[in-house]
Amino acid sequence: MNSKTKRSTATNTQIINRQQEKLPSHIPHEVVSLMVEKEWTITRAWRKHLGLTQVEVARRLGVSQGAYSLQERNKKNRRSTLEKIAQAFGIQPEQLDV
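and the corresponding structure tokens:
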């Protein structure tokens, strides 16, 4: 193998790292199960999975519990809303994008 080929050949670690960068964020099996079995929205399933109450999440968001409850029941929240909820949950916004 010549030096030009060596420089252009990626190592296994580099290939794996590139593949991981392209993968979507992980959604735990429990979250998916709650969505399917109980027909919950992804935000409700994540909240329950994380052991949070609506009051706790609302407080983190700076809104009332009632306002958060409406957001949680909404199946099509705005991207900006999902980003705020994800931050309150401590997860990546992509993990709410289903």
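(Above: one complete record from the training split.) The chain is about 65% helix and 0% strand.
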